[in-house]
C-alpha cells in the first residue's frame, strides 16, 4: 500500500498556544494537549470494513488504544446475528453458542462476556457508507453504553447524509437531521453522554442538529493535508483553490498563510460552469480543497479551468472520497503536459473504506490516514 501515508500533524495544526495562528488553526484535539495523568486506555470496537483504520489507530496510540472485536453474522433474511460474539482480540475467543433466531427471522442479539468491558472507556469505529449497514451498527452502538461502560465514544469519520441538510421546498426531507437525531439517542454511559467524533461534516450548521444527549466533536482532515504539503519539493509554490464559495467559507480559515484562488459556479441554461472568481494560478502548484467528492464533475472542471489559467500543476484534496459507481476512475494522473493532462496528486483520507481499497496503489491518489487524529480524540 505504497500510496497510504500515516502523518502526525505538526503542533501548528492543533491548538499550541505558543505557535498557533488564528488564520490556520484547525479544531482538532492535539494528543500533546492532554495531560498524561488524564490520558486513558480505550477499548476500540469497529465495523469490519474499518478494520485497517482501527489497527492503525491502535498502532499510533502509544498503547492507549486496545482493539476489541465483534463477529458479524447475518441470518438468511439478511438481518444481523450478533449473539455471543463480543470478545477482545488479544484474549482467546470464547466458545460460541449455537446460532439463535426468532421464529419470524429477526435477529436475537446477545453479547457474551460483557462483564469484561464494565467501567472501561469504550469506543466504536463506524462506517455508514450505505443505508443497509446502518441498522446492525446502530444495534451495537445503542447496546455498548448500556453494558455499564465507564464512557462511550462513537467515531463516525464520514457523516453520509451531510449534503441533505436543507429544505428548499415543502416536502423536502433533510436526512442529515434525521441521522443526527438517531445518533443523538445513544444511551447514556455511566460517565455521562456519548462523545461523537466526526470529520469535516459537510455544513457547519449541522453541528446544531445533534441533541443534548450526545457531545459531538468535530475534527478536520486539513492538518494532515497541511503536513503533506510541507513535504512536497515545491512546498513554497503552493496555492490553495476552492471549487466554490461554499468550500471557501468552510476551509479558508485553515489556509490563511497560503495564496488562494476562488472559483465559482454559474448557470448557462441547464449547465453549471466553473469560472475563476479571484486569485492567480499562473506558474503555481494549485491544490483544490473540498470536504467530499461524489461524481467529481466540479473538481474536473476546476482542474481544466486552472490549467487554462497557466497552473504548473493541479492537485486536489477531499476528506471524504465517496466516489459512487467507481467515479474515481474519471481522475487521471498528470502526464508530460503537466496540469493540462490531469492531477499531480489526489489526496483523500481513509474515511470511506471501500474507496481506500479501490484506489490503493493507483495514481494520482494518496491516502492520508485519520488514525493519528482519531487516537488523539479518544483521549478526551
Automatic annotation (TrEMBL):
Gene3D superfamilies linked: 3.40.50.2020
GO biological process: 5-phosphoribose 1-diphosphate biosynthetic process; purine nucleotide biosynthetic process
CDD domains: PRTases_typeI (cd06223)
GO cellular component, one term: ribose phosphate diphosphokinase complex
Example GO molecular function: kinase activity
Domain of life: Eukaryota
Phosphoribosyltransferase domain: residues covered: 266-320
Pfam families according to UniProt: Pribosyltran
Family indicated by similarity: Belongs to the ribose-phosphate pyrophosphokinase family.
Protein name per the record: Ribose-phosphate pyrophosphokinase isoform A
